[in-house]
Specification:
Blueprint lengths: L6 E7 L2 E9 L40 E6 L2 E5 L1 H6 L7 E9 L8 E9 L2 H17 L1 E9 L2 E9 L6 E6 L8 H4 L10 H13 L12 H15 L17 H11 L5 H15 L10 H10 L1
Parallel strand pairs: 1-5
Antiparallel strand pairs: 1-2, 2-6, 3-4, 5-7, 6-9, 7-8, 8-9
Helix pairs in contact: 4-6, 4-7
Length: about 300
């Protein structure tokens, strides 16, 4: 069964125009869905809005959205009032500019869709645009009214089934600054030896992305649990997680380089590390008992 388009309209670039559809490129419909039930009756439950003061249910016709202007004080926004401030929905994705495919930081990418022509009449113009973008290695920046919001779209050649990949973009105010996340991260001085060892380890682990090699372990475990309950078998249990010891990063890198038969930078760095360790004075043993060390770590 062919997927149903999430949105249909027209893609316009100057005088060029063609009918297109947006098809969700990612879906959670295949995930196991669990419903809320009454433990006593086994009947399915449904959500209900209640007045937080009276505790009484509020029917759909009496529900309205509102904006809190101060604690406990709201202004209501009627559906027709919200619809009136939206621009006219002309069902058009208008292309504003073309830019290099890597011209937008990936942190702004939101939800992916496949963009494809909806009929044979649009296929020729669509194919012309797609081939031109692929040849120039550019992406298109467009705008459209999607799902009651004006959204920016980044449209790129996908190389799959003759479709373009259209990703909605987050607005600038929605994307947090990296400086906020790293504000309290201290500056660390990394020695040349550690950089060489880290580079060597990364090279030994070089690979490529294969989505089929990755599994949703929670979904798999949940499926096994449901199957066991349906068949009346003992319930599966998760394997106990191994406790990992806190190790010295430099020592771990040295050990990994040695285990992988390190050569080049790895051997050179290991030789330097050995000389440095020989020159360094021996550390005094920790006089604290094990219990005291554990409590110290917890307190920190």
């Amino acid at each position: 069964m062919a997927p149903r388009a999430s949105w249909k309209g027209f893609l316009t670039v100057g005088a060029l125009s063609c009918a297109v559809g947006l098809y969700a490129a990612a879906s959670t419909s295949e995930r196991i869905s669990l419903h809320m039930l009454s433990r006593k009756s086994g009947h399915r439950l449904r959500r209900q809005y209640v007045d937080e003061e009276t505790g009484k249910p509020v029917e759909n016709d009496d529900q309205v959205r509102g904006y809190e202007v101060s604690k406990g004080e709201y202004i209501t926004i009627e559906p027709e009032e919200a619809a009136a401030v939206l621009p006219d929905n002309d069902k058009t994705i208008s292309i504003d500019a073309f830019l290099p495919c890597d011209g937008i930081d990936t942190v702004y990418l939101d939800r992916p869709y496949f963009l494809a022509p909806v009929d044979e009449a649009a296929a020729e113009v669509f194919d012309l645009l797609k081939r031109g973008m692929a040849a120039q290695k550019v992406a298109a920046l467009g705008e459209a009214l999607l799902f009651r919001r004006v959204r920016k779209l980044l449209i790129r050649p996908s190389g799959e089934s003759g479709a373009l990949l259209a990703s909605t973009l987050s607005f600038d105010y929605e994307v947090r600054s990296a400086e906020e996340a790293f504000a309290e991260v201290p500056d660390v001085k990394i020695t040349g030896e550690m950089r060489e060892l880290a580079t060597h380890i990364i090279k030994t682990k070089a690979g490529k992305f294969d989505p089929e090699a990755y599994q949703d372990r929670y979904e798999t475990a949940l499926a096994e649990l449901v199957r066991a309950k349906m068949e009346g078998k003992p319930l599966p249990k998760a394997a106990p997680r191994k406790e990992e010891k806190v190790v010295d990063l430099l020592a771990a890198l040295r050990a990994s380089a040695k285990a992988s038969g390190g050569d080049g930078a790895g051997k050179k760095a290991s030789a330097k590390a050995g000389k440095a360790a020989a020159k360094a004075p021996a550390k005094k043993p920790d006089a604290k008992p094990a219990a005291a060390r554990k409590s110290t770590r917890k307190a920190s």
